[in-house]
Structure formats: C-alpha cells, structure tokens
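I am writing to request your help with a piece of structural work I have in hand. I am sending you one protein, given as its amino acid sequence and as whole-number tokens for its backbone shapes. Kindly check, if you would, that the fold set down in the tokens agrees with what the sequence suggests. You will find the record immediately after this paragraph:
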Amino acid sequence: MTKKIILLFALLVYCLPSQTLAQTSYPTKPVRFIVGQAPGGATDVIARLVSPRLSEQFSQTVIVENRTGAAGSIGAAFVAKSAPDGYNLLVISSSYAINPSLYTDLPFDPVKDLMPVTLIAEAPFLLVVHPSMPVRSVKELIAFAKSKPGVLNYASGGNGSSGHLAGELFTYLANVRTVHIPYKGAGPALIDVMAGQVHMTFGSVLSSLGHVKNGRLRALGVTGATRSSGAPDLPTIAEAGVPGYQTTTWYGLLAPANTPAVIVNRLSEEMKKAIESPEVRNRILVDGAEARGSTPKQFQTHLASEIKRASEIIKRAGIKQ
C-alpha cells in the first residue's frame, strides 16, 4: 500500500511540473517591455519607472525598448506575433482603445492577439483655458460657448487623440458647439493655448499644472471620476456642471495571446508589488497620475469598456483619420 502511495505521488509530481516550474522559474532571462511611442513620452516614462523595480523583484533585467510608428501599431504587432512566453510584453496607453475605431487596417487584432495583464496607472486631464477668457468655472465656460455657438475652440494633440475625445465628450454632454484644432502633439497644443491662439485644451496634469500655478493657464476642472491628488481643490467636470462626464488617460501591460495563465498571473502580481512600492507610487503621484495595479480580469473589463466608449464617441462625432 505504501509503495502504491509513493508511486502515485511520484506520478502526480511528474504530471504537474510545467505549472509549478513555470511559476517558480519564470523569468529565466531578460524581459522586454515594448513601447510603441517615442522615448520621453508618457507611456515610455511609465515603463521606465516600473521596470527597475520589477527587475529587482525578478532578479532579471527588464529592458524597455521603443518600437515606434503607425500610432503604436508597430510595437503592438511585434508583441502580438511574439512567442507567448512572457518575455515580450507591451506597455500601452489609452490610445490603444481608440485605434480600433480609427484604423481599419491594423496589423493585429487588439482584442484577440493580445491579453491583459494589469492596469498600471491612470490620470485625468485638466480642462484649462487662457487667462484672458472671461470664465472662471465650467458653468461659465458652457454659458460662454452657448452665447457664441461655434466660436469656442479647443486644441488637442491630434485627430483621434485622447484629448480630442475628451473635448468631443464635453461638447456632447454640455450641448455646446465648439471647433476642434488638432496639433502634432499635446505639447504644441498647450503652447498655443498659453499664447492665446486657442481658447482651451484638455491637458495632462503633469504638463499643465505648473503653468496653472504660474498663471499662464487657468484650470476649471479635472476630467476624472474623482478629484485629482495633484490638484485637490479643482472640482471634477461632472460636479462642476456636466453630469456623467468622465474620461482619463491610462497605462497598462499586455502579453501575447495564449501566454500561460500562470505566467500572466505572476506578472500581474509582481507588477502590483512594483506599482505599490513607495518609490514607484510616489513618483507616479508626483507625475499627476494615480497608481493602480489590477488583476488581468479587472483590466480586461476596463479595456473592453474603454474600447466601447471610444467607439461611441468617434462614431457620434464622425472622427476620421
């Protein structure tokens, strides 16, 4: 009887090593974070902020590699076609949820070819206007827009960008007519608002808050569901007069489809530890964002919701590339 038990146990151990081994040995070589945007951009900054901490936890180097082009699609396609072993991962921003509704010829399927690992961080925009504007609240801005239909204009970092969709959602829910002025990047858009060439923009907390403090811009509200820790005195746009308004920019991690669950879960758990470490969390807060860290399932729900929301805004506004 004893021999049978020993044999049974030996058989059990033999049959299950793939799961156990994958969990205990992964990773056995350097891991790559692929970023589809240029070095220095927000997505790149987030990737390089988390990677050193994750390297320490894994005792393996986590390399950040930029593969730019085609609105991030080149980097995404590279990871989608990579082996599903957890060594090539994609760091994305909220534009990932927008692109499927803007481009019909993506070289990968955003839903089927990549799978969620974790939501890393989330940040609201600031609704900012030039100080010469005769408005000091969201309600006054709406009244101004309604008194001059089609006169109020807003800048964004480009057609179909997160800032563009933030403006279109505001226009729709506030029931006002505005003119969208796209730029080649959020930086030039912000510069022209500060110069008084454009009335307003939806800028990131990181890039806008300093200019608000020195008086070059006036902030009217934040776009998130709750007030921002970077600007706690500013009301959300929803509480300031546009019920139901909420939009953010966010960052997450994806893996190739069919990556073993044991690896995806390990990645999610280790990313959560890295994100919640004081040095990473505090740096993310300084940059105007909120550290998140989620399960793959939670991020999957978030991503599906964001893809649907972006699609609705794009169709309603008739946005095309």
Notes: The first strand starts at residue 31 and ends at 35. The mean pLDDT is 90. The radius of gyration is 22 Å. The beta strands are 31-35, 62-66, 88-93, 114-129, 153-156, 179-182, 200-204, 218-222, 248-256, 290-291.
